[in-house]
Description:
- With 293 residues, this protein is mainly alpha-helical.
- It has 16 helices and no strands.
- Residues 1-30, 260-264 and 271-293 have low confidence and may be disordered.
Amino acid sequence: LRSWRPLELTPQPQASLGRPRTRTRTALTTMGSHDELHQSLEAEDDEAALAASESILAESPTDGTAYECKCVALIKLSRYKEALEALNSKANLAPGREFEVAYCLYMLNREAESLKALEDGTPLSGRRAQLAAQIHYRLGNFEQAAELFRTAEADLGGRSTETSINVLAALVSAGQADEALEFAGSLADSGQFEQQYNHACAFIENGSLSQAHRLLQRATQLCRKSLTDDGFSEEDVEVELGILTLTLTLALTLTPTLALNLNLLLPLTRWSWASSPRSSPTLTSAWARRRRP
């Protein structure tokens, strides 16, 4: 049995999605709702952008710029069902948004449909590969997820903290402990507790509990600091530290053989695209509020 699912930073819209495309600047006027929309986009105020977009559409239902802004605002506000309905109902007003459709489907737990939406007749690459990797990870196809994470990493400018953490998580989850340890050894210390925890999981999978113990201690320290710095209460911090504390206890008490046979641990994953929001579908309270599922 595997007792935990990974901690995820799930895919979210790129920062550029919060702004209209090139034509937007020329489409907006300096009057009324168009000016309000422009200001809300500059301020990255998604609620205001949604309100301004709907005001424009009430007067001009075929305004493509306002419609795209409405769809993006709904996504950034985590109103995925409404965003999906909007993207599908007037696709001609929001062309080229197949990726956003796939993202909404993913966030609505419609994985098969999301994968289908990502298909365009070309090999998966970039953020499409990254989203597909996350879907396969969720479905338990860890080897495929690891391969896609690496493809995305190469396409999106090389290694980043998020993609490296995900590659490591997928390798450990696929039972490829030796490859995971080799990969982890090539990474610089990001200061992220997920990296330390995943590296520890690889050592546990490999039966090296003393090394795992050292990394888990650091992961616990980093997690506490991260949550404390973000202003969470001590009660919330203790709740979120539970998974790390339990793993640390297991590393101290289990024999390597028992740890491997029970296969108790799954690594933590992080997800963000080129630039993106965050989420945690596994841990609750503080992390759930911090990272939308």
